[in-house]
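Person: Please work through this fold.
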Amino acid sequence: MNGQMARSGQAAIAASAVAFGVGTTLSVVALHGLRPADLLAVELAGSAAVLLTVAAATGRLRRAGAGSALAQGAVLPGLSFLLGDLGLARTTATSGALLSSIDAIATVLLSALFLRERVGRAVGAALALGTAGTVLVAVNAPDDGMAAVGGSETLGNLLVLASVVGGAAYVVWSRRTARPVEEGVGRTAWQFLGATLAVLPFVLGSWWTGGSHITTAEPHHLVAAAAVLLCGLGALLAFNLGIGAVSASHAGLLFTLQPLAGALTAVALLGEPLVAGQAAGGALILACLVILARAETGDRAGPPPDLPTAPTVATTR
């Protein structure tokens, strides 16, 4: 049963990574017509409204654990999305993808430091392959070199880096406070509400000083923003469903799928060419996942000991 739960958890985390990667690419598209505050309002407030309605209608919106979920939501997706959107608007897609490769390293290191998770040879080898793969995908990603807005690209890179480190910290935090699978929808709803409240001062201040571009944006920019909403909503929900059965270090390794998914989205939807370096990076990421899947049972983390055994879950920036 534990092995089956671990596989289901890994599938959920992998789906989350793919959704975040697709959302990152679509965010770059949306930010060429919208301001960062506009995109934040769409993806966070929209997701909160949908999830709160669904959770309340199905009786899954519970007060137990709401406080911690609100606090976690302020970090991710709140602060992390805020920093990420501000950074992606000021830097190139290549730089943003390269910095995202730090996620796996930061997550594994934080897991070893704060959760005392053992980094065995299999995990170490997977980390090396996955990180090398993400770097290859990033540095070989075609880009026109144009940021969505003017300003310092160095500042944009630092903002994206802060967003990535915040996301890694969130993975470790979530592992320590993981809840049973049946609480996933309600907990995710509280998290998006916490995120919305956390970024609300920035959104209102930005609109007050510079206005909004929502009413003047091109249709494809609005469609991209709506797709970012769906990606973020699905990604965090899948993450909450899977993190109880996957160690934080393994979750970090699975998130090496994020830049690969972003690159493939750019190829499929934006018509960018797939170069040899990207293909090689993708192969290394797949090798990372194979090693992780074959890791010894002792390296896999089952459900937290203080939680009841959760039922198996099948799941599909």
